[in-house]
Amino acid sequence: MDFLQTIKIALRALRTNKMRSFLTMLGIIIGIAAVIAMMAVGSGASYVISQQIASIGSNIVLIIPGSTTSGGLRTGSGGAQTLSSDDARAIMNDCPSVAYAAGTVRTSGQIVNGNMNWSTVIMGGTPELFEIREWPVVSGRPISQQDEDGAVKVCLLGQTVAESLFGSSDPVGSIVRIKKIPFTVIGILERKGQSPQGQDQDDAVFVPLRTAQRNLVRSQRTGIVSAIIVKAKSEDVIAKAESEIQALLNQRHRITNSKEPDFSTRNLSEILAVAEQSSKAMSLLLGAVASISLIVGGIGIMNIMLVSVTERTREIGIRMAIGAKKNDILLQFMTEAVLLTMLGGVIGIALGAGGAAAVSRMLDWPTLISFQSIAVAFIFSAVVGIFFGFYPAKKAAGLNPIDALRYE
Amino acid sequence: MTSVISLSDIRRVFTMGDQQFEALKGVSFDVAIGEFVAIMGASGSGKSTSMNILGCLDRPTSGTYLLDGLDVGGMTPNQLADIRNKKLGFVFQGFNLLARTPAVENVELPLVYAGLHSKERRQKALLAMEQVGLAGKENNHPSQLSGGQQQRVAIARALVNNPAVILADEPTGNLDSSTSAEIMNLFTALNQQGITIIMVTHEQDVAAYAGRQITFRDGKIISDHLTGQAA
Lengths: 408, 231
Prior knowledge:
Strand order of the largest sheet of chain A: 4-5-10-7-9-8
Structural class of chain B: alpha/beta
Number of helices of chain B: 7
Low-confidence stretches of chain A: none
Number of strands of chain B: 10
CATH architecture of chain B: 3-Layer(aba) Sandwich
Number of strands of chain A: 12
Order of helices and strands of chain A: HHEEEHEEHEHEHEEEHEHEHHHHH
Structural class of chain A: alpha+beta
Largest sheet of chain A: 6 strands, mixed, barrel
Shape of chain A: elongated
CATH class of chain B: Alpha Beta
Distance between the termini of chain B: 13 Å
CATH topology of chain B: Rossmann fold
Largest sheet of chain B: 6 strands, mixed
Order of helices and strands of chain B: EEEHEEHEHHHEHEHEE
Oligomer: heterodimer
Mean pLDDT of chain B: 90
Low-confidence stretches of chain B: none
Strand content of chain B: 25-35%
Distance between the termini of chain A: 28 Å
Number of domains of chain B: 1
């Protein structure tokens, strides 16, 4: 018996009881729609997180000074002024797993353009900083090595600062005052958006590191940086880069076993990977809850198929009497069950995708429907049909033709 | 004449709990090609059990059954299904057509399980319907046909695969007398074309159409004689 004929027979049987077929399918439709919508919302959340990770820059290790004790008072982490521009340069030159290292200083202050002013974060950084953070300028030019070496008073504006001080006009070439010192605006940085912590990364001004060290921050010695930001050569060597840096700085700062290190390193991607993982776990959980409704739907299918087998006992008897084998009957009822669930699956996918789009629009929450989740939902619906259709089909195939023919 | 059916010492014992009931107590008879046989008897006489065995729906507890030269006794259920499909045609009392399925597709059904392609199926089914005088009713559903017409569809379905034997179980049981006569005339005509027919009935006037009458009582054959109407 050819497969096409089997499908034709199954479709006829489903059409015979349209309302019942639809109600039976409803469980699967709701289950699949829920799975699709939940997965879409969940992977939307993962997408946002991975976007934020990308906005920080990939493969990043952050080195901050340790605490210091003065007069019995310990400052918190980052309080000591133990890291220098020379450390940054040494890391870049001597650690083989490091692609870039940039010393940075950070302060905040008022920035003024004519009669407009704005309080913002002021970052000093060597040109490598923008390579590390993968942050290009959209107009003007980036900070050059000459700017750095000559401690030239130039600055790059983040988008938020540019809009606050200049509105819609082009700031490149204008003079602004940062902490009352005039700086030439040489470029505008690309928009970055929010950091994973929810800070506006575009609300910042960048100046060459040496310029900042000389003019904007106070320190006990020259060449002090408040943090060194490092980019490892690839994702695989982040941990290696971290240990290379620790070894190098221990040596440079003469840290021995008995002395507490005066710096600490942080692997940012690791922190964010954890965040991403938790969002994945969340979407998995949502999916699991939704798949329970699929199982309930599957039981509904089994129930109706059992009723259908009983109702059609005579038909089964006729088919057997004129030559249907056990497998033909088994296949016929299995096909019916699988068609029911797959049809329900397709409708559910459409409904789930529509629901996700509606959530996306109404709640302004990004949703992402992956091809995988559709494939998984589709296959899952077929599997539900096979699993829950098997028992009724087996029952039909096991009927004795004589009894089946006599069944009233 | 060669036998298309040969039963020898067929016994069928039903076991219900610890009770045993012997429905057939050693039945033997042969049916030659082209015969029209009526099997008669009261209910419980064993005629239905022997019909089930003849139809390969049931297997004897002991004894041999040769159908068209093949020993059916040792066959698996799948082989029996094949035999039913290719060697036998069934006509039932209650017509047993698939509802909500056009007449022609009902007739095609055995060919579906025989694995024929749709074109060939349709061609053979239309031919069989013409043979029983139902040309033009192909697309009617069983509910749109009279009892006699429904039984004709069932006969066409039995004929469509060119079986060795047609087995009819009370074919006129649900029909009025004039329609019964119509159906019996159709059987007679088919028999005259050389088709072997075995029919179970309890009505004497229906059995009279057959060329040979076998009568059962208490699981045994009590009479087996030609009626003189043999073709």
